[in-house]
Design brief:
Helices cover about 45% and strands about 15% of the residues. By secondary structure, the protein is an alpha/beta fold. It folds into 2 domains: about 200 residues, 2-enoyl-CoA Hydratase, Chain A, domain 1 (Alpha-Beta Complex); about 45 residues, Lyase 2-enoyl-coa Hydratase, Chain  A, domain 2, CATH 1.10.12. Helix 1 links the parallel strand 2 and strand 3. It starts with 7 loop residues before the first strand and ends in a 9-residue tail after the last helix.
C-alpha cells in the first residue's frame, strides 16, 4: 500500500455507499487517524439523504480488522493521558456509527477482533464468511474495554456473552459468533461480498424514510423510559409521506415502487 493511499475509502453506487478500512498491508489494523477519518466519513454520509444503505468493510478478503494497531501504542497510547485522548477519537466515531440514520451493513471477511468487532457491532446487520473469526482478547494486553466501546456489544449480545468474550479472550469461529448473536448471517467465504451487496440492494429498494424510522424506533426501544404520546404519534407520520402513497399504489398496480424519500 502506498503511503499516499487514503486510510478510509468511500465508493458510491447509486444510493449504496461502501466505506473501506484501507490498510490491507496491516490487515486493516486501526490507527488513531483511521478512527477519526471513519467518524468524519460516517457523519458526512449521515447528512446525505441520497444514501439509503452503507456497507462497512475492510480492504481485501483477509480481514475486516484485527483491532487497534499495537505498534502505535508506544507513541499514541503509552499512558493514561494519551489513552484518554485516543479514546475520544474512538468514542466520537462510535457515536457517529450509532447515530447514523441509514442502515449499516458490515461485510466481514476473515478476522474481526477487538476494535474491528466494536465497529461491526455498531452496524445493523453483520454478514460474514464461514472462515471468519471473532473475539476481543484485550485481557492479554492488560487493556480494559471502556464503557462506550463495550456498550454496543452489551446491547447486541447481552452482558453475559460480552463478559464471556472479554474474560476468556478466545478467538472463535463464525458458527459460534452466529450462535452468540454477534453476526446476522454466515455464508461461504466466496459469497460474502455478493450476499452483502444483495442485502444492501434489498434495503435500498425500500422506502428510505421507513428504514430511518425503524432504526430510530429500535434504538428508542432499548431505552427503558416509557414511550411518550408524541413518540407514539410519530409512528404514524409515514401515512403523510409521498412514499406511502407510492408504495400502496405500486402494490395495487403490481409494479415496483419508485421511492423518493419524501
Amino acid at each position: 500500500m502506498s503511503p499516499t493511499e487514503p486510510l478510509i475509502v468511500v465508493a458510491r453506487d447509486g444510493p449504496i455507499a461502501t466505506v473501506v478500512l484501507n490498510r490491507p498491508d496491516k490487515l486493516n489494523a486501526l490507527t488513531k487517524p483511521m478512527w477519526r477519518l471513519l467518524g468524519e466519513t460516517i457523519d458526512a454520509l449521515s447528512a446525505d439523504d441520497a444514501v439509503r444503505c452503507v456497507i462497512v468493510r475492510g480492504a481485501g478478503e483477509k480481514a475486516f480488522s484485527p483491532g487497534n494497531d499495537i505498534a502505535e501504542f508506544a507513541t499514541a497510547r503509552a499512558n493514561k493521558a494519551q489513552a484518554i485522548e485516543y479514546g475520544r477519537s474512538m468514542h466520537r466515531t462510535a457515536a457517529a456509527l450509532a447515530q447514523c440514520p441509514h442502515p449499516l451493513v458490515a461485510q466481514i471477511h476473515g478476522i474481526c477482533v477487538g476494535g474491528g468487532l466494536e465497529i461491526a457491532a455498531l452496524c445493523d446487520l453483520r454478514i460474514c464468511g464461514t472462515g471468519s473469526r471473532f473475539g476481543a482478547p484485550i485481557k492479554n494486553l492488560g487493556l480494559v474495554m471502556a464503557y462506550p466501546e463495550m456498550a454496543p456489544l452489551v446491547r447486541l449480545v447481552g452482558p453475559a456473552v460480552t463478559l464471556e468474550i472479554l474474560l476468556e479472550g478466545r478467538v472463535f469461529p463464525a458458527d459460534e459468533a452466529l450462535a452468540k448473536g454477534l453476526v446476522t448471517r454466515v455464508v461461504p467465504d466466496d459469497r460474502v461480498a455478493s450476499e452483502t451487496r444483495a442485502t444492501a440492494e434489498r434495503i435500498a429498494a425500500g422506502a428510505p424514510l421507513v428504514a430511518r424510522w425503524h432504526k430510530k424506533f429500535a434504538r428508542r426501544l432499548a431505552d427503558a423510559r416509557p414511550i411518550s404520546e408524541q413518540e407514539h404519534d410519530e409512528a404514524f407520520d409515514c401515512f403523510d409521506t409521498e412514499d406511502f402513497r407510492e408504495g400502496y399504489a405500486a402494490f395495487l398496480a403490481k409494479r415496483t415502487p419508485d421511492f423518493k424519500g419524501r
